[in-house]
Amino acid sequence: MRNNVSIHAKTVKIALGILVIIAAFLVPQVVTDAYYLHLISMSLIWTIMTQGLNIIQGYTGYVSLAQASFFGIGAYASALLTLKTDLSSWAALPVAILVTTVIGALIGYPIFRTKGHYFAIVTMAFCVITWIVMVTWESLTGGDAGLPNVPAPKSVFGINFADKSNYYYILLIFVLLTLLFVHRLIHSKIGRSLISIRENEQLAQAIGVSLTRYKLLAFSISAGLAGLSGSLYAHYVRYVNPTPFSIDYSLNAILAVILGGSGTIAGPIIGSFLLVFLPEYLRIAEEYRLLIYSLMLILITIYFPKGIIHLLSVAWRSLRGRGLTRKQ
Description:
By secondary structure, the chain is mainly alpha-helical. Helices cover 77% and strands 0% of the residues. α3 packs antiparallel against α11 and α4 packs parallel to α6.
């Protein structure tokens, strides 16, 4: 009986997943308002960044405040490569991922000599330093003025990606690839090692898990995914300046993971959409917007500490239990 229930639940989850993917591909045909399509596109960019953060925060147990820095490094790397050289955005994207991954590995090695809140403080310092460099190195980054006219990806099969509705599909495909990658990673030996570090570092080390190796790997992958999202962002908005790469955005990314559900794949998706859409909807409250936004986030954090995904899981199990009871 239990096996049948388990198989049925798995089948339903797969069917729901397929329906969600189909619905996602139909979004540009259904959502005709450019403003709402922009918000959805930004949510997809944030989803890739928060999925990366979730690897180091949710699965490894280390809170990093450097995610916005890697997001910015990826954006600037991709923008500069296309503006200063003849490299296309398609070629600049993997370079941006490589650059952020390497930087993540280089700074991760000394950073992981610290633990707990000391680790968070060091990553915060890195984020602040990186932002200052972006602002002050005007000859390279353009300073506060930023880098305008970042080119959109070149057309493929006649599809013009300067059109936001077409660019949406690039974002969606990369989100799906990211989710597949994270799923495979977490269900591999590497993922099990990361989770063991999160649960108990001493025990993980005792059973043969190399702490430095796996923590550094998690941090590098997290940086690489942030670089991917940064590159996609640069060629989507076609303008890069330091504002979206400050410590505030790192805090928002952490909040998105916590609100959605840390240590789950679906959690950062929910958190990313919430963090993009909620402030926009609260604009109608004018001067009370930030107050209402803050109170809502506090209440969600207090009453749903495991994230919104946990609440949805409880509701799903309750509905499934009622369905089984009726069948009996």
